[in-house]
Amino acid sequence: MADLVLEMEETAKAAKQQFNVRPNAQAISAAERATLLEDPGFGRVFTDHMVVIKYSDDRGWYDAEVTARAPLSIDPACSVLHYAQEIFEGMKAYRTQDGGAVLFRPDANARRFRQSAERLAMPLIPEELFLEAVRQIVSIDRDWVPSGEGALYLRPFMFGSEVMLGVRPSSEYLFLVIASPAGNYFKGGKDAVTIWVSNDYTRAAPGGTGAAKCGGNYAAGLLPQAQAVANGCDQVVFLDAVERRWVDELGGMNLFFVFDDGSINTPPLGTILPGITRDSLLTIARDRGIKVSESPYAIDQWRADAESGRLRETFACGTAAVITPVGEVRSVDGNFKIGDGGAGPVAKELRKTLTDIQRGNAPDPHGWVQKAY
Hints:
The structure is a single chain. This protein is α+β, with helices and mostly antiparallel strands. Strand 13 (about 265), helix 8 (about 275-285) and strand 14 form a beta-alpha-beta unit. It contains 10 helices and 18 strands.
């Protein structure tokens, strides 16, 4: 009870924080911004501002500000550099037909951020403070939100900033939000991608950090991702760490399987990231009366179902790529094709339904869309 009261008091205190807004005096010109927005790619172009909030064990959350995006100055003994206490989120702001901007399920990102923080022994930022930080950067950089199929990708993140050497949680942290206009996640806007099965490496084990969105999970996937590219593939897919049999997830996306009876399956939560796009697609599919399951799926069964025709589609999903069909799977044991190797009707329909809701072009029965400012 005492912990609950303390958290409620901390939440109330944080929610009342005023953001000190200091506009960038050297913001990019409208003409240059327009040029950059023509083809921003993904994660290469950044907006003019960032949000910074400090935390210390003795002060809690303090000094919330919106300021010019700039390099950080950290000490060589900054704890994150040695013990990797770091978490992040990925979310988007979408341009609406009336010229405004909306966020898609930002409350779910706030909750997942807190869950990641808890797993890595970091302070829990109050959800309202997280949401206000996101709204602040979208508001001040509203001209950076692309129109058309693009979106403003938002990256809230937090890391241990105490200057110390010692294997323990940091006593100081920095929470930041940066923003980047985004186009296609995969170069060339591919209709379907090819993925490589990693037999040598795993992404996460039971009891590990697989369900947390932390940088270490992605660092562990860089070598197998490089192997995927060396084998002519776009992404790597991992198997479970215990039996090396069950399909886990891609390096940065969840997987779905569509069968000839119209049903859909996706691997269960536990060691995989609880994707917000994943959860949204499950909800949309169930709303449409589609039989959905969240159960283990073996790599040998995946191959057999693809070769027999029982499996009609496989697609990956995530905030950055939304829905990306998988056309071919490669491994040291041989390759197999999914369907005709292109995008299937279920993936196309689910993608359209989801993106229409995200952009305010379709009914939003679950109240997922919120105004950004």
